[in-house]
Amino acid sequence: MIANNQTKVSKDVANKKIVVVREFDAPLEQVWKAWTDKDILDQWWAPKPWKAKTKSMDFREGGTWLYSMVGPDGTESYCRADFKTIVEKVSYSGDDAFCDENGNITSDPPGMHWFCKFSSTGTGTKVEVEITFATEADMEKIIEMGFEEGFTAAHGNLDELLAK
Amino acid sequence: MTRDVFQAIADPTRRAILSLIALQAMTPTALAERFDSSRQAVSKHIKILTECQLVKQEQSGREIYYYFNSKKLKEVDKWLEPFRAMWEDRFTQLDTVLKNQKNKRS
User: What homologous superfamily does CATH list for A8-163?
Assistant: First the structure.
């Protein structure tokens, strides 16, 4: 019923969680690298027409990825991901927040906790991304705003992208 | 616990039930016949779908018929679609990156 490589999104209110699942036609090792290597991340992490630009990347437990989303007009919105747990080629987790260019957190839209899990499927690699909110209120807030707007605020003016 | 549309459609059997009754209203018996799982299991799924208003039931003579309430599902689309589209866009770019790496190697 569901075609391969379709992005599946589901919401789990009880656990204040949104889950995104997708398969990729590449071996686990390669997909893992694409999610954890700054040079590769910069090539795909930002949804069009934004571009991700890494300022610093320290992929280890306790380390931080500081990057910006560069808009078509050159405006940069900074984000930081603080890695909590890393199990090589299996999973990693961390907290995501919005910040200034020096990494000082400015998060007004609620921050989120990420858990990314990687597994081989035989033909490729499945990635599951769980995005957890601190409180149900945070999650409901984003829902009320409409995810559209939630992510506009979060990832810096995504409205253009979402409107198309 | 409040049942919620998103949880309801997360389950493949429930999605299959919805796609069946979207075509035509069905009685519990007719519906159960279409699935390998027990009638009890199917009615549990129906209960969940009813609680979140994706399925409505109507009495017609002796029989109960289940109807699909498409209005409710539209709410889901509206909410999830922009979010899904954003990720899909991101992932399409990743597909390209992975494909290019593969070509380079071979």
Answer: START domain (3.30.530.20)
